Inverse folding.
């Protein structure tokens, strides 16, 4: 067990793979333009109650971070390498450039994820090794392939750096080979939880602590004109010191200016906003807020707000069914969830209001 067991649990989820060789999401699987997501086993995440008030344990305030300006420029640019050298170290372990293979974390349709140790700094990194040719043959939209999504993911991750976002360290893209390697920060910890979470939720105090971190990361992304597109517990990792980091930018989009209109909605169905179920254009940032609300709902109640037996059934319930909240719920939390899960996107609470909400700053 030890660090090897932990890396098998975590890096697979961070990078969209499982340690048993299957992908963490069922794909590519389409119903119209929607992807279906496979549910995972549930696992409760222990944690301590949040001890801070408006300022969290990492020394920055949710409200103070609204503009995200302090993080817009990366402190360390992503290293770009255009040569792949494969070799072995003195013990016969395979190497890619200066990275020594430790263990395979998972295998997917287009490549694999392998834990490596950097010989220069001695640190562990997760290498997502993809095959460009295979990606180029998978159509995800009329004019886009899976390779389009991967290249977009790389470009987005090259621009972002924030304490609540998994960091891209290096991109290795050799034009003379079929491989594309993304070297990512190794997060030692676990998901917030999988699927709908433990029955009864994880408790308000822990949920508040996690929510603040997710909120800060999402505020930063939106301030950079980036829509995540798939906010959910399985894309939220908790480090060994309790910090939540957003991961998986495979369906994210970047915009110029304030035009965040989208038509394709490739996120997970049960986290899909009502306006995204109608097959018309929608605003990506507002849809992210809805997914954030579903995530908070899961954290405090332990079940999905809207669920059905088929994809169409799920969408029908999201669009038509009223939001159920227990009568004995904390009134401040009720108000926050009603705001985040408002079916009318024009009336939905925004991230600014959420960051200043009484339940959040309590």
């Amino acid at each position: 067990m030890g660090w090897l067991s932990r890396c098998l649990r975590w890096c697979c989820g961070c990078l969209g793979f499982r340690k048993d060789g299957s992908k963490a999401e069922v794909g590519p699987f389409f119903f119209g333009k929607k992807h279906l997501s496979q549910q995972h086993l549930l696992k409760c995440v222990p944690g301590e109650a949040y001890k801070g008030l408006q300022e969290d344990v990492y020394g920055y305030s949710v409200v103070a971070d609204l503009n995200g300006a302090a993080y817009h420029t990366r402190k360390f640019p992503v290293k770009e390498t255009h040569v792949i050298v494969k070799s072995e170290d003195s013990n016969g372990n395979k190497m890619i450039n200066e990275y020594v293979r430790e263990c395979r974390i998972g295998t997917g349709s287009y490549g694999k994820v392998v834990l490596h140790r950097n010989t220069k700094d001695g640190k562990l990194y997760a290498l997502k090794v993809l095959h460009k040719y295979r990606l180029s043959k998978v159509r995800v939209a009329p004019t886009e392939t899976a390779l389009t999504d991967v290249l977009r993911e790389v470009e987005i991750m090259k621009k972002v750096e924030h304490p609540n976002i998994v960091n891209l360290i290096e991109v290795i893209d050799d034009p003379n080979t079929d491989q594309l390697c993304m070297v990512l920060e190794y997060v030692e910890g676990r998901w917030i939880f999988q699927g709908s979470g433990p029955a009864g939720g994880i408790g308000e105090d822990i949920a508040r602590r996690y929510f603040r971190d997710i909120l800060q990361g999402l505020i930063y992304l939106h301030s950079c004109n980036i829509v995540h597109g798939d906010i959910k517990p399985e894309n939220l990792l908790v480090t060994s010191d309790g910090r939540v980091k957003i991961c998986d930018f495979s369906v994210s989009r970047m915009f110029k200016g304030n035009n965040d209109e989208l038509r394709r909605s490739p996120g997970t169905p049960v986290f899909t906003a009502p306006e995204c179920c109608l097959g018309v254009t929608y605003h990506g940032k507002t849809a992210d807020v809805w997914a954030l609300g579903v995530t908070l709902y899961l954290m405090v109640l332990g079940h999905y707000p809207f669920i059905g037996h088929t994809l169409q059934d799920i969408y029908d319930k999201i669009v038509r069914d009223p939001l159920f909240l227990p009568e004995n719920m904390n009134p401040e939390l009720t108000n926050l969830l009603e705001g985040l899960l408002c079916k009318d996107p024009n009336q939905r609470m925004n991230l600014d209001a959420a960051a200043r909400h009484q339940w959040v700053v309590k």
Observations:
- Residues 1-70 have pLDDT under 50 and may be disordered.
- The first helix runs from residue 2 to 15.
- The two ends are 38 Å apart (CA to CA).
